[in-house]
Amino acid sequence: MSEGYQSLWGDLRGASFEQGYLDAGGVRTRYLRSGTRGAPLLVMLHGTGGHAECYSRNLAAHGEHFDTYAIDMVGHGWSDKPDRPYEVAVYVDHLRAVLDALGAERAHISGESLGGWVAARFALAHPERVARLCLNTTGGATMNPAVMEKIKASSRAAVENPTWEAVHARLAWLMADPASVTDDLVACRQAIYRQPGFRQALENILVLQEPAIRQRNNLTDDEWAAIRAPTLVVWTSHDPTAPESVGQRIAALIPGARFALMQDCGHWPQFEDAPRFNLLHIDFLLDQH
Questions:
Q1: Which residues, other chains included, contact 203 with Cβ-Cβ below 8 Å and sequence gap of 6+?
Q2: Catalytic residue among 51, 267, 281, 289
Q3: pTM beyond cutoff 0.85
Q4: Per the CATH hierarchy, to which homologous superfamily does domain 8-142+221-285 belong?
Q5: pLDDT tens, residue by residue, 198-234
């Protein structure tokens, strides 16, 4: 093993953390957690086909300030996968059930890609339950057929035949530097993709890559402008799904929103440049300028 080997355990070294499951409206929901009970609650949401480990490099730092949960959203990771199409309202209902299960009236909500899309819709549906909102390379604002086809093709290839190479390719597409994909991350996602029933779950997940379904789930300009939670929009210089102008436009529509551009990162800035992401994210959540 090389001296440069990077492990998910190494990401969490020195942190007090736990893995657990909760019943969120009948959905057995897996989470990773770091922090102190009674501290402000922070819930972090992954992207399409993802899982809580996308935040493995963020849990320890955020756990110093918040009761921090990274969840596997319904249909994803090791959470339950009811056989139904997962339009954004399904994820919103699941997130509401997670907060209910945690006994939380309000929380900070931070989402990456699909997770940001869910977070934005949640902030519209349940504004009283959102303290602060972070939209990280968020979905919900674009309709790019080439990107949608790429997500469908690479995801199906990796799930139908989850070889090391196929899973690595699916993850490498997310990164500005493919070397950012660690062996631990590939092995983790490979195990998730090999679960019985995951092929059908993937088809339920991918409905948002169908144009008509995506269109009715996307936020309109008026809906972005109706978000009232203090909001941070994070974008990157090498996002494969949309240029930084998309993030700038979202931030301009949301009243008072901040915009931050992270250089030399792709679709997972929280993983590719965790130290910088942690600083700007925690600074925003603590309302420090």
A1: none
A2: 267
A3: yes
A4: Alpha/Beta hydrolase fold, catalytic domain (3.40.50.1820)
A5: 999 999 999 999 999 999 999 999 999 999 999 999 9
